[in-house]
Structure formats: C-alpha cells, structure tokens
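Appendix C reproduces, verbatim, an entry submitted by the partner laboratory led by Prof. M.T., so that reviewers can inspect both the input and the predicted structure.
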Amino acid sequence: MKLQLLLVTALSCLRPSSPQDGAWQPPMTPVFNFEGLLEGLENSSYDLTVGNSVVICVVCCMAKRRSSTDIYLTHLALADLLFGFTLLFWGVDIHYGWIFGNGMCKFLSGLQEASEYSSVFLLACISVDRHLAIVKATRVKSPRRPVVTVTCAAVWLVAMLLALPTVIQRRHMSTEDLDYDICYEDKDENTDRLFVAMGVMHQVLGFFLPLGIMTVCYSSTLVTLYHRHNRQKQKAIRVILAVVFAFIVCWLPYNVVLLIKLLINSSLVEERLCETRYSLEAAYSVTKVLAFVHCAVNPVLYAFIGVKFRNRLLTVCHKRGLISSTLLATFKKGSVSSVGSTRSRNSSVTL
C-alpha cells in the first residue's frame, strides 16, 4: 500500500485534469505514507478519545454547578472527540484505500471540517470568557448559562455551514491504475476560483481570526495578571503562554503548507516539478498530524491543569469507587485555589 500511495503522487504529476481528455489527473490529496504517520493517527485518536471523554464525563457529573467555562469545555471536548472519531477512518484509508463508499466520504469529510471549525471557534470563546472573568471581573458580569449555550449552538451552526462546500465537493472514486479507492475533492478548471475562495476562508476563519481573538484577549489578561500581587499569577501566566504557544506550534505549520498547496493546486503558482509536489504532500501529511495532536492537548491545557477540575475529577472517581476517601482527602488537602477561580465563581479555569 505504501508503494501505491507514493505512485499516486507520481501519476498525478503526469496527467492533466479532465477525465474526458484521455489523460486524467485526479485532483486528490494523496497521503504521504511512512511508518510514523499511521502510528501518529492511531495515537492521536486514542488520546483524543480518552482525554476528551474524561472531560465530558466530569462536567456532566457536575449537574447544577456548571459554569460558563464548563459549558465551553464540554463543547470543545465534544468537537475534539468527533474529530478523533474521523481519524479512525482515515487510518483505515491509509492501509486499504477508501472502502466506506461515497456517502461516508462526504459525511466524514464534512464532520472533520465542522469539528475543526468548532474547536478553534470554541478556543476563541474560552479566551473571551477568561478575559471577562479576570480583566473585566469587577465591571462586567460573566455570561449567564443560557447566553453561553446559545453561543455554543451558534458556533456549531456556523461550523456546519462552513463545512457544506466540503460535503458537496468530496466524492468517492475507484482508481484503475492502483486498484484501490480514494476519497477526494472533485474539482475542475471551472471550480478553481471556488477552491481558492474556500481555502482563503478556511485560513481566515479557521486560523487567523481565532488566533487574533486569542492574542488580544490573552494579552490583556497577561497585563492584568502581571500587575496583581498574587502568588498564583506566575502559574497563570505560564498557562496562558502555553495555550497560545501550543495553538501556534500545532496549527501554523499546517496552515502555511495548506496555503502553499492551495496556490499550487489552483494554478495561481505554477509548479511542474513532481519532486516539489511530492515534498509538499509529505509536509502536508506531517503538519496535519501535528494539527491533530492539538486536539489531544486541549484537555490538558484547558481542564486537567486546573486545580478545580482535578478536584472534581477526583470526586467523580471517588463516587465510582475508583479511589479511597483517604486518597481523595490527601489529594485535596494541598489544593490551592487558582487566580481565576478565586476571582470569579463562574470560571473553573486555571487562571
């Protein structure tokens, strides 16, 4: 299968774009397969499932004590969990080609796109929520639960609408040369501009806009924390820097490669060398896995690192008989309230 996938890229360099002209180049996204890629997908899927499932379980067990941040964390964990669900199918695709048919090709492509948009939008919402809880704590009330719920519903609706073009353009196809099936974006010369517009929209809405919101909100939060005399502020500052750093490291390389790939595939930048296209696909696959990893990191950065969440997790484990009362008391004894949780009862975050 590895040799077949490598041949796909080579063949695609040699063929024009229309199946009617007798020399067809499938406008697909071939997967650069190497030993670590499948392992990376499997590990990412496992980590996504475990970490985000724990977050959802703990928040759901909190019943009436859910804060605005808890609601955002639940939806973020759900988005990342759905994203991880799609990775299982792409892992099978790497080994055996696309064996799930046209309907699943469209559905899973759309689900992955929608969950990706939802995840980054919710990260931006959490940054705003933290900003209100810390910077505006004395002037602005934290959003009430109905407002946060409506915001999350709007995030999912917008994400699904943005994923619709992907659902429409994705299709399943059998390749005669390599004798296996693929799930790819069906395009021709008439849809090049549409693909460029979609790509630009994905870059702006799926990366630069959330990054801008996070940068503004967290920068203001950092300034506020810096001028406070609190022994927990250094930890809070490190958490903020880790959140922004992880987002940039995981998503920036992927979006840069995606932009280059978009320009070349749309013929706005001419590149005829197969070696360049092959290297680009390799970089695309590597950076895509790196972006996947961020969804597994989210539970650690936004939930497990917080004292309040850890105490709730321990309480849930105790109620399920997983840990003893003595061990629960030992863990909770040294717990120190975080800066954000001392400033506002509406925030369960570390800050």
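Residues 32 and 282 are 5 Å apart (CA to CA). Additional entries are available on request from the coordinating office.
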